[in-house]
Design goal:
The chain is mainly alpha-helical. Helix content is about 75%, strand content about 0%. It is globular, with a radius of gyration of 25 Å.
Length: about 525
């Protein structure tokens, strides 16, 4: 008989429930990255420019960001099972509509619907797992969840490229339909709301129906504007664009007002008071930084392979994909360690150190390395992310009251999602800035007074051989300029990998500010 508010004698094995809810979440996380490689095909098929087609990505991220913080409140209001199934149904239906879209406007609109449906899946699944498994077994449950969250973004670009090259970009959306329908069928059978959640709903039904419209509006406006700023900032030259300036002001004012309003409201849409729990607060900060590093490197490494090393999109995906399979093997081991009363804090520290070590390793790469030399540091980095993912999700909820599980899950996943978005935006911008810095520095040394620069220029110009000397010199200068740009961009990528390492090390002291995080015999560890 389960205790502590868990399902009282569930009709199905908890692992059946875990695999059922993970299925839809895996497809949702996959969709955050699978469409990236298909933008050229989408823009060509729908008669749109490549810049316009990026709204296919942005619209999904904006809708996803808005839906995440509302999921906890809606789960309590509607019932978690009902809300979860509504999200699966909306995600599945909108995926089919995305595949059938005939114009870019239609596709963007359907992606918004898909993002809304998908935004509720991750927090709902996490809350379901927290309530289905006792604390002593929660680590293994989070390992299953981690497979969806960590592996799907790694496999997304590879799978998307293969489907697009061999079939059509429409099939990257159609593949969600059978999976979504199967998930919906299983969820209806095996997923149940815990007794405490049913009691909460009964209390809410007995009261006048009230919605925090102001908090809802402020959060939707602020998060939506913020997500567009992150996704479009570099493309629009950041604060050189009036569009970005207006959206930034909107985001800051709206979110600032939302924070004050939600803290003062008796029944907030987003319960920020949960951050008073230091385990939850520090876990949220660590996961924010960790996913900034993980998603930042997931974006930069394929870019580096394709831009500087001549890899195709499929080959770049093949370099990234093995890390996902090693993570699948790693997750159950971490779950077993947590089940044997290993303090989650030490595993989190170990994970951050492994991520930092792998990032430093990446910063030593050259353009002459083989594919195998690129695969291993990425595997190690992802293993580090997996090492901290399971314990951090276990430690975050250890001291959260059971009736706040839905709200905590929505807030935690929002913070993680924003960490990913900010991480990608920051490293994309810094990459360009550092490339400019290195190019300026190297250009200052490419002068006629520098013997090595003069020698390289003569070799590239073919001076001393037959042909037009002036034309040869012009070609040589063009080649030398291209070489300088290439080397500057290479150094910029290596700078970003070093930044990832320092960011991982920087948050380690926060882990030691957390309370002891050991699940023992179905009860929480002593304070």
């Amino acid at each position: 008989m389960a205790t502590d508010g868990l399902l009282d004698g569930p009709r199905f094995n908890p692992w059946v429930i875990a695999l059922t809810v993970t299925l839809a979440t895996f497809m949702e996380v996959l969709d955050t990255s699978i469409a990236n490689v298909a933008l050229k095909h989408i823009s060509g098929s729908l008669a749109a420019s490549e810049d316009e087609s990026t709204w296919v990505l942005t619209s999904y991220l904006v809708a996803n960001a808005i839906a995440l913080p509302l999921s906890g409140w809606l789960s309590t209001l509607l019932g978690r099972k009902r809300f979860y199934m509504m999200c699966v149904a909306l995600f599945t239906l909108s995926s089919a509509l995305c595949g059938m879209a005939t114009t870019l406007g239609q596709l963007v609109f359907f992606r918004v619907l898909q993002g809304i449906g998908g935004g509720g899946l991750q927090p709902s699944e996490q809350a379901i797992l927290v309530d289905t498994f006792p604390p002593a077994k929660r680590g293994m449950a989070m390992a299953v969840y981690g497979m969806a969250i960590l592996v799907a973004p790694i496999l997304g670009p590879t799978l998307g490229g293969w489907i697009t090259d061999n079939y059509s970009w429409r099939w990257i959306f159609y593949i969600n339909v059978p999976v979504g329908c199967f998930s919906l069928f299983l969820s209806n059978i095996v997923v149940e709301d815990p007794p405490y959640l049913k009691a909460q709903r009964a209390v809410l039904r007995g009261k006048p129906f009230r919605i925090d419209y102001i908090g809802l509006g402020l959060l939707a406006l602020g998060l939506g504007a913020l997500e567009v700023v992150f996704d479009k900032g570099q493309q629009e030259d950041w604060f050189g664009s009036r569009f970005i300036v207006v959206l930034t002001i909107t985001a800051v004012v709206s979110l600032g007002a939302a924070i004050v309003w939600e803290l003062l409201h008796p029944q907030p849409i987003l319960n920020l008071r949960l951050l008073k729990d230091r385990n939850f607060l520090f876990c949220a900060i660590v996961i924010f930084c960790a996913f900034g590093v993980l998603y930042g490197s997931t974006v930069l490494l394929p870019q580096m392979l394709q831009t500087l090393m001549g890899y195709s999109a499929t080959m770049a995906g093949m370099v990234m994909s093995p890390a996902g399979f090693f993570t699948i093997l790693e997750m159950p081991i971490i779950g077993i360690l947590l089940g044997r009363r290993v303090d989650a804090r030490w595993l989190i520290v170990a994970g951050l150190m492994v991520v930092a070590t792998a990032s430093f390793w990446m910063s030593t790469l050259t353009l002459q390395v083989s594919a195998s030399q690129l695969i291993w540091p990425r595997i190690v980095q992802t293993l580090g992310a997996g090492l901290l993912w399971v314990p951090i999700n276990t430690a975050a909820y250890l001291y959260i009251p059971r009736e706040q599980t839905n709200n905590a899950s929505g807030l935690f996943n929002l913070i993680r999602n924003e960490g990913s978005s900010i991480g990608v935006a920051v490293v994309t911008t810094l990459l360009q800035r550092r490339a400019q810095f290195h190019q300026t520095w190297m250009a200052g040394h490419v002068t006629p007074l520098h013997p090595q620069a003069t020698s390289i220029l003569q070799q590239m110009s073919g001076i001393g051989g037959p042909g037009d000397v002036v034309s040869g010199m012009q070609q040589g200068l063009a080649r030398l300029y291209g070489l300088v740009q290439r080397e500057a961009l290479t150094l910029a990528y290596l700078d970003m990998f070093r930044l990832f390492a320092f960011a991982s090390l920087l948050v380690i002291p926060l882990v030691f500010l957390m309370r002891r995080s050991v699940a023992k015999g179905g009860e929480l560890a002593a304070h």
